[in-house]
């Protein structure tokens, strides 16, 4: 049973436009949500996170939105750049225990 | 410094070999993790060490043997592996305690079992 789902395996966006990556989770006990970015043959790089007491967190071009009633989070990248092309994983955590990752979305930013 | 280092970057081993993967961090983190990642899949947790003690083993076969010699080092000893164990092995570390959710990953060791 998948506790974290990223339903879009891939997404293509034009450079300069907004990229929106989505993630759904099933367990309302999760209290912390994270996004990681991964290039081929490298480890995941932590991008941005949000706790369940907030609904938005912003860091430069990256904004994470959390909708607890819908059990949905999203990552917005504005403006998108070719260097953003990578696999993006959402991850969830409960009481600072281990992370559970979604299946990932391959983002391609076209020049 | 948010760096986790892993050696070697690549490893090819036969099914009868014994080898070890190494991981090091100097961020003062007291939790360290081993993950396995197959192509086009998310990382899967294998082991968690908290304060240098094994706290979680996700039913990993005994041919994988973790070791945490001190708070900065984490090893994964490999013996009699199978070809299906070929994967990217990732080490991560984090602070412990409430609010300590972010894990920082190393670049991984690409393991091929022949």
- Give the fraction of residues assigned to helices of chain A: under 10%
Order of helices and strands of chain A: EEEEEEEEEEE
Shape of chain A: globular
Order of helices and strands of chain B: EEEEEEEEEEE
List the helices and strands and how they pair.
The complex is a heterodimer of chains A (111) and B (114).
Chain A: E1 4-5, E2 10-14, E3 19-25, E4 32-38, E5 45-51, E6 56-59, E7 62-67, E8 72-77, E9 86-93, E10 100-101, E11 105-110
Parallel strand pairs in A: 2-11
Antiparallel strand pairs in A: 1-3, 3-8, 4-5, 4-9, 6-7, 7-8, 9-10, 9-11
Chain B: E1 4-7, E2 10-13, E3 18-25, E4 31-37, E5 44-50, E6 53-57, E7 64-70, E8 73-79, E9 87-94, E10 104-105, E11 109-113
Provide a descriptive summary of the structure in words.
The complex is a heterodimer of chains A (111) and B (114). Chain A has 111 residues and is mostly beta strands. Chain A has strands at 4-5, 10-14, 19-25, 32-38, 45-51, 56-59, 62-67, 72-77, 86-93, 100-101, 105-110. Chain B has 114 residues and is mostly beta strands. Chain B has no helices and eleven strands. In chain B, the strands form two sheets. In chain B, strands 2, 4, 5, 6, 9, 10 and 11 form a seven-stranded mixed beta sheet that branches. Chain B has a four-stranded antiparallel beta sheet with strand order 1-3-8-7, with no helix packed on it. Chain B starts with a strand and ends with a strand. The model of chain B has no long low-confidence stretch (mean pLDDT 93). Classes of the chains: A mainly beta (111), B mainly beta (114). The A-B interface holds A 32, 34, 36, 41-46, 49, 89, 93, 95-96, 98-99, 101-104 and B 2, 4, 6, 33, 40-43, 45, 48, 56, 88, 90-92, 96-108, 110.
Summarize, please.
With 111 residues, chain A is an all-beta fold.
Observed structural traits:
heterodimer, A: 111 residues, mainly beta, 6-stranded mixed sheet, 5-stranded antiparallel sheet, 54% strand, B: 114 residues, 7-stranded mixed sheet, 4-stranded antiparallel sheet, 11 strands
């Amino acid at each position: 049973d998948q506790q974290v789902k990223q339903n879009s395996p891939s997404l293509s966006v034009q450079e300069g436009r907004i990229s929106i990556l989505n993630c759904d989770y099933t367990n309302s006990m999760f209290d912390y949500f994270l996004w990681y970015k991964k290039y081929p043959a490298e480890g995941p790089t932590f991008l941005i996170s949000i706790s369940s007491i907030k609904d938005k967190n912003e860091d430069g071009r990256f904004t994470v939105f959390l909708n607890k009633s819908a059990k949905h989070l999203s990552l917005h990248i504005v403006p998108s750049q070719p260097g953003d092309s990578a696999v993006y994983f959402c991850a969830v955590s409960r009481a600072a225990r281990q992370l559970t990752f979604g299946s990932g979305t391959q983002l391609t930013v076209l020049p | 410094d948010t760096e986790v280092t892993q050696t070697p970057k690549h490893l090819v081993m036969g099914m009868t070999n014994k080898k070890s993967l190494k991981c090091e961090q100097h961020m003062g983190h007291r939790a360290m993790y081993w993950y396995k990642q197959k192509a086009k899949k998310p990382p899967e947790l294998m082991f968690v060490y908290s304060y240098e003690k094994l706290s979680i083993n996700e039913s990993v076969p005994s041919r994988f043997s973790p070791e945490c010699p001190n708070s900065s080092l984490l090893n994964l000893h490999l013996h009699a592996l199978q070809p299906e164990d070929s994967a990217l092995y990732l080490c991560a570390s984090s602070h412990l305690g409430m609010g300590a959710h972010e894990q920082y990953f190393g670049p991984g060791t690409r393991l091929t079992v022949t």
